Amino acid sequence: MLVNEIFHSLQGEGYHAGTPAVFVRLSGCNLRCPFCDTQHEHGTEMSEEAIVAAARNLLPPPSPLRPPLVVVTGGEPALQLTASLVEALHAVGERVAVETNGTLHLPGNVDWVTLSPKSLWLGDGAAPVLTRADELKVLFDGGHDPAAYDHIDAAHRFLQPMDTGDPARNAALMRQAADYCLGHPQWRLSLQIHKILNIP
Ligand code: SF4
Known about the structure:
Blueprint: E1 2-10, E2 20-26, E3 44-45, H1 48-57, E4 69-73, H2 83-89, E5 95-100, E6 112-115, H3 119-122, E7 132-140, E8 153-161, H4 167-183, E9 188-189, H5 193-197
Parallel strand pairs: 2-4, 4-5, 5-6, 6-7, 7-8, 8-9
Antiparallel strand pairs: 1-2, 1-3
Helix pairs in contact: 1-2
The chain binds iron/sulfur cluster.
Iron/sulfur cluster binds next to loops.
């Protein structure tokens, strides 16, 4: 399995924002979003045993407590993720969450699915095959209507202002996204707190 990075931090986005988690970033993605800000292409070949060992080594001794979450992300983790890795990662964290663009099916033993579809920007070729998720997270750029994903069955719906790299534009998008949530209360605002805190 090609692994981009494994690290221990706080989940920065969505429902679990602020929650301690071990992150396993798998390399590669099947989409090419023009706004992608994740360095996911490079990777090291690792066995599932080596991934679990590396993840466990990140945890501060001597706490007997596992962190609440292991987050498998990418790139697109569904390109490589196996049920056996999900099972093994339960030794690292209490629950295994996956962040996906939804274009590929996931192993059935994932505990939490965060679906972040990209077909608003890439068209039908990026339409999600997943029709339900624990959490739907849609980027907000002020020009595309998140209602396009109203058919997705999700317990939680988050609107996340896109990071344009321009502070003034970002501030305007945050205000617009907040207004959208006020008018559409099924949505909640998600801010990228790891960027605010300047942590990985
Ligand atoms: S789906 Fe995510 S990781 Fe893949 S290119 Fe788009 S933004 Fe980047």
